[in-house]
Amino acid sequence: MSAPPIGHTAHPPIEVAPIGDLVDSASVRAAYRMANAGTLRRRIDLGVAIFALVGVSLLVQDHEGYDGPILPIAVVFVTQAVACALAIGLARWGRLHEHLPVLGACLASVLAATVVAQNVLLGLSPEIITVGLVSILACTAALLPWGWRAQLGVSVVAVLAFAGAEMAAFEDPLGVHAHVGLLTVAVATVVGALLLDRYRFAAFQRAAGLERVSRSNREEAEISAALVRVGHTLGSAVGHADVFDRVNGLIVDLLGCDWSATVTLDGERNVYRVTGMHGVGGATRESALALEFPEASLPLFREIAKGATVEIEDSSDTDLMPASFFDQFGVSSALAAPIVLGGEVVGAVTNGFRDRRGPFSRKHRRITAGIAQATAIAVENQRLFGDLERANRVKSDFVSTMSHELRTPVNVMLGFARVLEEGDAGPLSAEQREIVARIRRSGLQLGQLVDGILDLSKLESGGERMKLDWLDIDGFVSSLEEEFRPPADTSDLVLEWHNHLPGTRLLTEAPRLQTIVRHLVANAVKFTPAGRVRVEFAQSGPSLVVTVSDSGIGISAEEVENIFEEFHQVDGTDSRAFEGVGLGLHIVRRLVERLGGSIAVVSEPGSGSVFTVEIPAQFARGRGV
Q: Which residues have a Cβ under 8 Å from the Cβ of 352 and sit 6 or more positions away?
C-alpha cells in the first residue's frame, strides 16, 4: 500500500512496495518503516495543530496577571512557532522521509523544553510544569508512530528540562513525588511506544501475509482459467490447420503481449518451422512462416532442446539469436517455453513485446509454460491428422484409379450383353437369353459397386465444389427412367415414375441429385424381388421432394437407425440373399446433407419402405429460364 502525499500535491508521495510482494522479514520491516513514515508525516501536522490550539489557549489564560517582561515570553513563543513550521516543511522533503522519527523527536523535544521555560517565566508551580510535560509525553506516545527510540529521546529531554528548571528557578527542593511521577510517565510512554510499535508491526506482517496469499490465490485462479481457455481452444480446433494460430491469438489476449508464435520440429528434416503466429501480419508474417531453423544451428534452439524456458529480457543484449533477426521482426523481449512430448522437445511456444524490455513476471512465465505443455497434445494430434490425411489421399487415389479401370470393361460387358439381348447379333435361344440376362445382372451389380466406390471416393476427398445449374425435371426423369428400364426377365417388378412438376426447371446440383435418386431407386429395386417400386418428384414450399417407395422386404425398427452407416448390411452374413457392400444409402445421406436437405425413412418388415428426400431448390416454370 502506498502512503498518500501530505499537503500540496506538488510534494512527492512516499512510495511503499505492495505488501503482497514482500517475502522476507527485512523487506517487510523496510516497508513497515516506509508506511509509518507516511503516517508520521500526517500525524506531525495533527500534533502541531493540537499543540497550537492548546498552547495558545493556556498561554492566554496563564498570562493574565503577569506583570513581568514580555520579551522572554515572546522569544519562547517565536521559538515554538519556528520549530513547528520548520518541522512541517522538512517533513515534506522527500529525502528526509526515512528520518521523520528523528525530526519528530527533535520537534517534541524543543516543544517540551520551551514549555518548561515558558511556565518558569510565567511563574507557574512545579506541578503545572509536570502536568504539561506529562501531557506532551502521553500525546506523543499515543499519536506518533515513531518507535521507542524517539519516545526515549523526548522523555530524556523532558526529564532534563524539568531538572534544569528545578535547579534554576525553584529555591526549595521539590518533593520526591514530582520526580517519581514524571519518571514513571516517561518510562511508561517509552514502554507504551515499544508495545504499540510491536503491535503495529505484527498487524502489518499479518496484512502482508494475507495480501500475499490473496495475490497468490488470484494468480493461481487466473492461470487455471487461462489454461482452461487454452484447453477449450485446443479441443475445439482439433484437426484444423489454424489450431496454432488460435492458440497464439489466445496467448496475446491472456498475457497482453504484442505477439506470439509456435515453432514445431520437423523430425524428418530436423528443422524448426513456424507453424502458428499472431500479432504479426503482411509480408512479415509470410517471411516468418517461410523460415526454417536447423535443430542445433542457433543457441536459442540448443537451449530449448534442453527443455529449458528461455527468457530474453533485452534483444539487444543477447547472443541467443542474431541481432538482425530481432530487428527484422521488431522483437525487444521474448519468452520461449519448450513443448515436450514423450520426454522429447518437439517445439516451443514463444511470445514477447516490441517496445517493452525487462524481465517477465512469474505469472507470465507460468502461463506460457502451461500453454506449452497443453500444446504438446495439439502437436501430436496435428501429426496424426497429417499422417491420416496422407494415408487417406493414397487410399482415395488408389480406389479412384482402380474404379475407373474397372468401369471401362464393365461398360463394355454391359454394352455387348444388351446387343445380344436385343437380337442385334442374331436370334438367341431361350437358354442363351437366360445366360445373357445373368451376365447383364452381374454386370449391373458390378457397375453399381464401382459407381458407389467412386462416389464415396469423391465425397471423402472433398475435392469437388458445388456447382449449381438449371435442371429440366422432365428430361431428368426421362433419363433415369431409361437407365432403370427393367430387363425382360424382371416382369414381376413394376417400376413407376411420377413427375408432378411437368415443364419445371430447378436450380440445383444435377450430378449429386442424380446420384441420390439413382442409389435410392437401385436400393428399392434390389430389395423388391417382385412387386412395385414408385418414384415421385414433387414440390413442397421451397424444396424438391423425392419419394421412393417399394413393396419389398422392409426394414426392422432396430435396423432403420443403422442403414445409413458406411458398409452396413441388414443381413451381414455370408449367406445373405441380396448382394451389395452397403455404400448406397450412406452416400445418399452424405450428399443430401451437402445439398442442405434431409432424408427420412418409414419401413416395416414385409410391407416395404418409403424414403423421402427434401432438398432446397429454386423453381421456375417453362423453358425460357
A: 257, 258, 259, 312, 331, 332, 333, 334, 335
Average pLDDT, the chain: 80
Q: How many CB atoms lie within 10 A of CB 122?
A: 19
Q: Does residue 577 surpass a pLDDT of 60?
A: no
CB of 157 closer than 8 Å to CB of 136: no
The tens digit of pLDDT for each residue in 326-352 reads 988 889 999 999 998 888 888 899 999
Element (H, E) at 181: helix 176-236
Average pLDDT over residues 589-593: 88
In the predicted model, what is the mean pLDDT of residues 84-94? 83
Closest CA to 161 of 122, 109, 123, 124: 109
**Four-point Cα dihedral 391, 396, 398, 403, nearest 10:** 160
The distance from CA 452 to its chain's CA centroid, rounded to whole angstroms, is 45
Strand arrangement of the beta sheet that strand 598-604 belongs to: 493-499, 531-540, 543-550, 608-616, 598-604
Single-letter residue type at 205: Q
Residues 191 and 65 grouped into a single domain: yes
What's the grid cell of residue 171? 529555591
Same domain, 275 and 186: no
DSSP one-letter code for 162: H
pLDDT tier at 534 (50, 70, 90 boundaries)? very high
- Give the pLDDT score at 211: 84
| Residues contacting 28, CB < 8 A, separation 6+ | 19, 22, 204, 205, 208
In whole angstroms, give the CA distance from residue 114 to residue 76.
6
Distances (CA, A) of 107 to 88, 219, 577: 10, 46, 114
pTM for the structure as a whole? 0.47
| Residue at a domain's end among 380, 403, 430 | 380
Assess contact for 473 and 499: CB atoms under 8 A. Answer: yes
- Within-domain flag for 425: no
* 1 — pLDDT class (breaks 50, 70, 90): very low
pLDDT at 4: 35
Pairwise CA distance, residues 34 & 26, whole Å: 12
Q: Which amino acid is at 284?
A: T
- How many structural domains comprise the chain? 3
322 with 341: CB under 8 angstroms?
no
Contact 539, 545 (CB under 8 A): yes
Domain boundaries, position 248: 236-380
C-alpha cell recorded at residue 130? 509536570
Same domain? 337 vs 281:
yes
DSSP 94: G
- State the Cα–Cα distance between residues 189 and 397, nearest whole angstrom: 97
**pLDDT at position 31:** 82
* Greater pLDDT, 583 or 174: 583
283 belongs to a structural domain = yes
The strand pair at 344-353 and 310-312 is best described as unpaired
Q: What is the reported pLDDT for 170?
A: 65
Q: Residue 76: which residues within 8 A CB-CB, separation 6 or more?
A: 114, 117, 118, 121
Partner residues linked to 353 by β-bridges? 333
* Residue-wise pLDDT tens digits, 281-317: 888 888 888 888 888 788 998 888 888 899 999 999 9
